[in-house]
Amino acid sequence: MIKRKRFGQHFLNSNSISQSIVSEAKITKNDVVFELGTGLGILTPLLCENASKVISVDVDEQLTKNAQSKFSNIENLVLKSGDGFKSKEPFTIFVSNLPYSKSKEAIEWLAQSSFSHGVIMVQKEFAEKLFAKSSKKRKAVSVIADYSFEIKILSNVGKNNFSPPPKVDSVILKIVKKNVMSKDLIHTINKIFSYRRKTVKNILKQFNKESEIDKRVDDLSGDEIINLANQILKK
Ligand SMILES: C[S@@+](CC[C@H](N)C(=O)[O-])C[C@H]1O[C@@H](n2cnc3c(N)ncnc32)[C@H](O)[C@@H]1O
C-alpha cells in the first residue's frame, strides 16, 4: 500500500495498545463513538464491541472501501469517507490516532463539539504544547485545550508500534469535556496570540475598546486570555 504522507498514514500495529485505547474509552451500550481516521481498522471493530453505534471516517476513500468490505458484517458500524472535521454527526465518545499534522485542527474541532470524553493519540511534542503553562511554550491551542478539556496522559508510545514508523514518539491522552467553545472564541484566542508581545491595553485599542491593563499576553493566565477574548467579542 502506498503511504499517503499528507494524510498522516502511520498505522498502529500493536493489538495490545489498541486494546488499551479502547478500554480507556470506557464505551457503554448508550454511547455513539466517533473515530477519526479508520486507517486499516485496527481500532474500529474493537470500538464496535460495546457501543450502540460507531461512526468511523477516513479522508482516504480507498481505506474506507477496504474497511467497508472487511467489516460488512458489523451492524453497528457506519463507515464514511471524507474530512472528519466537517462531520456534524452527534457522538458521545471520540477516539482517534490522530493524523499528526491535523492535531491543532482536531483540538479546535473538539473544543466546539459537545461530547463526554475521548482518547486520542498525538505526537509527544504536541502533548507537551497542550500542557505548557510557561509563557514561551504556551500557544493558543494550549489555552483552548485547557479551557475545553480535563487532559490526562495515559501512556507513551514508541515509533515502532506504527507501520511505517513515524519520525516522532507518541502519547495517548484521555480528554474529558469541560466547556464547549464557539468558533469565534477560538478564532479570537488565535488572534490574541498573534499579538503576544502587545499589552492588553494596546490589543483592545485595535478593537476600539479601552483598558488600563499593561500586562502582555505572555503574562496573562489562561482565564485572563479567555476573558480578554470575550471582551473583544462583546458587542
Ligand atoms: C495515524 S493514522 C491512524 C489510522 C488508524 N486509526 C490506526 O490507528 O492505525 C490517521 C488516519 O487518519 C486519516 N485522516 C487524515 N486526515 C483525515 C481527516 N481530515 N478526516 C478523516 N480521516 C483523516 C488518514 O487517512 C489515516 O488513515
UniProtKB/TrEMBL annotation:
Keywords per UniProt: Methyltransferase, RNA-binding, rRNA processing, S-adenosyl-L-methionine, Transferase
Classification via SMART domains: rADc (SM00650)
Binding site for S-adenosyl-L-methionine: H10, L12, G37, D58, D83, N97
The protein, known as: Ribosomal RNA adenine methylase transferase
Keyword set includes ATP-binding: no
Top-level taxon in the UniProt lineage: Archaea
Family: Belongs to the class I-like SAM-binding methyltransferase superfamily. rRNA adenine N(6)-methyltransferase family.
Location of the Ribosomal RNA adenine methylase transferase N-terminal domain: 17-179
Pfam families: RrnaAD
UniProt keyword Methyltransferase present: yes
InterPro entries: KsgA/Erm, rRNA_Ade_methylase_Trfase_N, rRNA_adenine_dimethylase, SAM-dependent_MTases_sf
